[in-house]
Specification:
The structure holds two protein chains of two kinds. By secondary structure, chain A is α/β, with parallel strands linked by helices. Chain A has two domains: 216 residues, Rossmann fold, CATH 3.40.50.300; 68 residues, 2-Layer Sandwich (Alpha-Beta Plaits), CATH 3.30.70. Chain A is built from twelve helices and 14 strands. In chain A, the strands form three sheets. In chain A, strands 6-7-8-3-9-10 form a six-stranded mixed sheet, sandwiched between helices. In chain A, α3 packs across α4. Chain A is elongated and about 75 Å long. Chain B is of the alpha+beta class. Chain B folds into two domains: 282 residues, no CATH class; 145 residues, no CATH class. In chain B, 55% of the residues lie in helices and 14% in strands. Chain B contains 16 helices and eleven strands. In chain B, the strands form three sheets. Chain B has a six-stranded antiparallel sheet. A three-stranded antiparallel sheet of chain B has the order 1-10-11. The longest helix of chain B is centred in the last third of the chain and has 36 residues. Chain B is globular, with a radius of gyration of 29 Å. The two termini of chain B are 25 Å apart. At the A-B interface, α2 and α3 of A face α1 and α9 of B.
Chain lengths: 314, 466
């Protein structure tokens, strides 16, 4: 598909007087992993539900895979793992996939093949006779991922896919997401685990109180100009005077009990300035112990976007 | 494919909820109860043949020993009892001189007085009886008319032989042999008992015979009151209760989302789920009612297909109540409310029917009373205004007309049972006879309400955010 798989313009969703989404604009390119971040109640799940056609938008337009949201054509190519899913507990893994595969219209022979494949792929192979009521949280999450993928969708919405999954399982799910990306699938991820989002996402959007406050690639969001941390054994008086004289932006990071105790975060304006500062720091009698690049983390960006960085620091 | 997927899902849900177990247990208990039941023919051939002669003369009167003017044992072994009787119609009379079971087969040789036996009868009858009925002689009259109950033959007249012609002053003496047809069994008095004879329900061997003692009436009583009456409503309530959680379970948060993202429209999803419940109850009803029907028929020897009409009737009313339950569940997402809604609608319809019938009955009583002499003066009682013409009466009648009327289709089935189990016009005289209005209109209105409730449920489900 040439154009964006997801195109949202001015999307608003109201529940009576409460505005869950306010004029959201969004575009997702095919074959990418797009992640949505936001606090609880920010409107992430509402946005996903609108894009899936489960909820009807109050205003605005949205197209999924070139079709209007909620259309049967769009739903044929969409996979979805809800956040708080409750699959019918009388099913076993295979019978649940058989049911959803039947609803997707997959021919019987093909369905059988895919059920075996996906059960193995999500780590539920060999547990075909266990009913879902006997599943652990992690197993439920795994079967949830399998049901979202059974019909080989082009666009997959995963709402908290690693919720309740142990670290090994998380790694497996992350690998699966990367595999899907390599296969050219588009993933729309909704997760609270920022580290995980950072590892798999191409683009990230941050929702706050129904409004899209940031959206961009990871590099765009975390900043292209990294800072550097200079660690000294003693107080680098000479180095500080040079920084002030040259007008280089810097901040002290001294922490009691830290080793080395004197750390400075420096924002050099250019490579030349950085080279000069490294040379001067090495000559400082306080003794340079380490030099470490520092990029703004997604968590920083996230908290900053929500206007909470200061509050957290305080 | 999508329908099959939803149907299979409903079956799994039902299996998990042990619904099939419940159906199996109920069916099993009913079949076991039925198997302990017995219908034993009583040695009352004299009464039955007397009834046939009554039918021949068209004489009105009570059945039983009152018509018998004399009786004697004619069989030396005392295996059966024949009797002599005189039956009158105006001035004419028929005298039964002898009745004897013949051609006894090995299984009935010890008791020939059974509805399966062939009989040899000797009659005397006034020649004018035949002439009055348009027959040339007594021989052809008997051949044509003997052994019919309400115009339905219950025996075949195998041979008729004029022993002596009476002429204008004496009676014709005739011998005839009769072979029973299946209907003969239905008019034969039987002893009906349960628990292998431990509990006698009906037995006229020591009292005068009543209409309930004939096998046809006994089965009608059993099928009409116990199966089609009480059984139907219990089955309906149970079916609605058992399936009331199907749709709310589908609408649960976390479950419904995984269904709504599939390439199937919401109205189709709901309708398929509704149809799943319907098919499932159809299966259960067919199994239970089929088993009960086979048991009753096997034990009584009377295979009346009319009872099987109850299967579509129960499914039809279940469809209506299930549509109400579905609408209630979609609006409130609560299985309990859906069930309560169905029960409330059902009870309201019952009350409405009672109100309508009461108005009719009171008006009829008032009409009859209006023709009676006035105890406080001369002339007859004056008729007051009819309740049906009052505003209250009009409202009740009008609402009743446009709402489902379960009682009427129930009456339709009972009538079919009567037609099947009783013979010809006997059905009309049955104590079970009820007034039947236009059952097609009633069925049409019920179907209309079912479709309407389902459409409303689909609209709510389609246009409301889950």
């Amino acid at each position: 598909m040439a154009g964006p798989v997801l195109c949202v313009s001015g999307l608003t969703k109201r529940f009576r007087r409460f505005e869950a989404l306010v004029g959201v604009n969004l575009s997702v390119e095919p074959g990418t992993v797009f992640s949505l971040l936001g606090q609880n109640g920010a409107g992430k799940t509402t946005l996903i539900k609108v894009l899936l056609g489960i909820l009807k938008p109050s205003e605005g337009t949205a197209q999924v895979l070139g079709f209007p949201v909620g259309s049967v054509q769009a739903r044929r190519k969409i996979g979805y793992l809800p956040e708080d899913h409750r699959f019918p507990e009388y099913h076993t893994g295979p019978s649940l996939l058989e049911f959803y595969g039947g609803l997707q219209g997959i021919p019987r022979q093909e369905r059988r093949k895919r059920i075996g494949f996906w059960l193995d792929r999500v780590g539920l192979g060999g547990r075909e006779t266990v009913r879902i009521r006997e599943y652990s949280k992690g197993m439920k999450q795994r079967i949830g991922i399998a049901q979202a993928l059974i019909h080989d969708p082009d666009l997959i919405f995963l709402d908290e896919p690693t919720d309740g999954v142990d670290p090994v399982g998380r790694r497996e799910i992350r690998d699966l997401m990367l595999d899907l990306k390599r296969m050219g699938k588009t993933l729309f991820l909704n997760s609270h685990l920022l580290g995980e989002v950072e590892l798999v996402s191409d683009r990230v959007a941050i929702l706050n109180k129904g409004k899209m406050v940031r959206e961009g690639s990871l590099t765009e969001l975390t900043g292209s100009r990294p800072s550097w941390i200079f660690g000294f054994a003693g107080d680098p008086i000479a180095f500080r005077q040079i920084l002030m004289a040259k007008g280089v932006q810097c901040s002290v990071m001294e922490k009691p009990g830290a080793s080395p105790p004197h750390q400075w975060e420096v924002f050099p304006e250019s490579e030349a300035v950085f080279g000069e500062l490294v040379k001067l720091a090495g000559e400082d009698p306080a003794g340079l112990r380490f030099l470490q690049p520092r990029r703004e983390s997604l968590e920083d960006v996230y908290l900053k976007s929500l206007g909470q960085r200061e509050a957290v620091s305080a | 494919m999508q329908f099959i997927a939803i149907l299979k899902d409903s079956i799994r849900e039902a299996l998990d909820a042990r619904i099939f177990w419940i159906i199996g247990i109920i069916g099993g208990i009913l079949v076991l109860l039925g198997l302990t039941m017995s219908f034993e023919p009583l040695p009352m051939g004299k009464v039955v043949i007397g009834n046939l002669i009554t039918g021949l003369t068209g004489a009105e009167g009570r059945q039983g020993p009152q018509r018998r003017v004399g009786g004697r044992r004619v069989d030396g072994n005392g295996l059966f009892e024949a009797f002599q009787g005189i039956f009158r119609q105006s001035d004419a009379k028929i005298v039964l001189l002898e009745a004897k079971a013949i051609n006894l087969t090995a299984d009935v040789v010890n008791d020939g007085n059974l509805p399966t036996s062939e009989w040899k009868l000797r009659l005397e009858l006034a020649p004018e009886i035949a002439k009055n009925r348009g027959a040339s002689d007594s021989e052809s009259f008997l051949k044509e008319h003997f052994g019919k109950v309400a115009n339905t033959p219950v025996v075949v007249v195998k041979s008729v032989k004029l022993v002596s012609a009476g002429g204008s002053t004496k009676l014709d003496q005739v011998e005839l042999e009769i072979v029973p047809l299946p209907g003969f069994r239905r008019i034969w008095p039987h002893k009906w008992s349960m628990f292998f004879g431990g509990l006698t329900i009906l037995d006229c061997s020591k009292r005068p015979m009543t209409p309930f003692d004939a096998l046809g009436n006994q089965i009608l009583l059993l099928e009409s009151i116990l199966v089609a009456g009480i059984g139907t409503w219990v089955a309906l309530l149970l079916s609605v209760a058992l399936t009331s959680f199907f749709i709310p379970a589908m609408l649960k948060k976390g479950t419904v989302e995984t269904l709504l993202v599939r390439p199937i429209s919401r109205w189709r999803l709901l309708t398929y789920k509704y149809c799943g419940g319907l098919l499932f109850i159809s299966f259960g009803t067919t199994v239970i009612l089929g088993a009960v029907w086979i048991t009753i028929s096997f034990k009584s020897g009377v295979w009346s297909q009319a009872l099987l009409l109850m299967i579509p009737v129960i499914v039809f009313y279940y469809a209506f109540l299930h549509s109400i339950s579905t609408l209630g569940s979609v609006v409130t997402r609560s299985a309990v409310f859906g069930l309560i809604a169905a029960c409330l609608v059902w009870f309201s319809l019952f009350l409405l029917n009672v109100a309508r019938d009461s108005i009719r009955m009171m008006d009829q009583v008032a009409e009859v009373a209006a023709g009676l002499p006035n105890p406080q003066g001369e002339g007859t009682m004056a008729q007051g205004p009819k309740i049906a013409d009052s505003t209250f009466g009009k409202v009740i009648t009008g609402v009743h007309r446009w709402l489902p009327r379960p009682a009427e289709i129930d009456s339709f089935v009972r009538t079919k049972l009567q037609e099947d189990l009783l013979l010809g016009r006997e059905a009309e005289k049955s104590p079970f006879s009820v007034e039947i209005s236009d059952w097609k209109e009633s069925a049409g209105i019920t179907l209309g309400h079912t479709v309407l409730a389902l459409i409303l449920a689909c609209l709510v489900f389609s246009y409301r955010d889950p």
